[in-house]
Write a structure and sequence with these properties.
single chain; about 220 residues; Methyltransferase, Methionine Synthase (B12-binding Domains), Chain A, domain 1; Rossmann fold; 2 domains; five-stranded parallel β-sheet; 9 helices; about 10% strand
């Protein structure tokens, strides 16, 4: 049985979508529970990928392939997870701020969050403060995630935070920010709840926000 867990973990890390689905189905047929599959295969793969990314040992395209494999595993597990009332996770609204058309990093974060069981609503790129506010009103997310790659759009994070306050929504949603021009100091200045410098940090930070934990990425 241990070999199957290792095989699934390696399939995820290597971005082998079909193999990951097949191994997951085999584990389920052998009577292995969802929690055990997550604990022994998907969570370790998240950890290893995160470490490789931080060390520069893996490129973004490879991480995207791994994220797709993770999504494939969650696709198999989803019908079972849906029946577990205690397993439900939160709603995340994610978008790239106004003036920025980059979305690779945002897409990666969205994919990782989905593969972790979150409901993710991607509202796209070049998102205005008004659009962020409307999305919070419409979807009532637990967490709002904003990203940017351009320094000249940095002010947009502050504009969104002020718009949330003015609309009376700030206290109703946790906010995480990230992207190349963002740092911890700026995230604190605008009153964000968490900051992440890469996709795997974002995943851990969102987990902390959802479960009201003070983690290393909390502000």
């Amino acid at each position: 049985m241990d070999k199957l867990f290792i095989d699934l973990k390696e399939a995820i890390i290597n971005g082998q979508t079909q193999t990951a689905m097949d191994k997951t189905k085999l584990l389920l047929r052998k009577g292995v529970g969802v929690h055990e599959i997550i604990k022994k295969s998907t969570d370790p793969s998240f950890k290893e990928l995160g470490e490789k990314m931080q060390k520069g040992e893996i490129a973004i395209p490879d991480v995207l392939m791994s994220a797709r494999a993770m999504l494939a595993v969650m696709y198999v597990l989803e019908p079972i997870i849906a029946s577990y009332k205690g397993f439900a996770k939160g709603i995340i609204v994610i978008g790239t701020v106004a003036g920025d058309l980059h979305d690779i990093g945002k897409k990666l974060v969205a994919m990782l969050l989905k593969s972790r069981g979150y409901t993710v609503i991607d509202i796209g790129i070049d998102v205005t403060k008004e659009a962020f506010v409307e999305a919070v009103k419409k979807y009532k997310p637990d967490v709002l995630a904003m990203s940017s790659l351009l320094t000249l759009t940095l002010v947009e994070f502050k504009n969104v935070m002020e718009a949330l306050k003015e609309s009376g929504l700030r206290s109703k949603v946790k906010v995480i920010v990230g992207g190349a021009p963002v740092n911890v100091k700026y995230a604190k200045e605008i009153g964000a709840d968490a900051f992440a410098s890469d996709a795997f940090e974002a995943l851990e930070a969102v987990d902390d926000l959802i479960y009201n934990k003070i983690g290393k990425y909390s502000l």
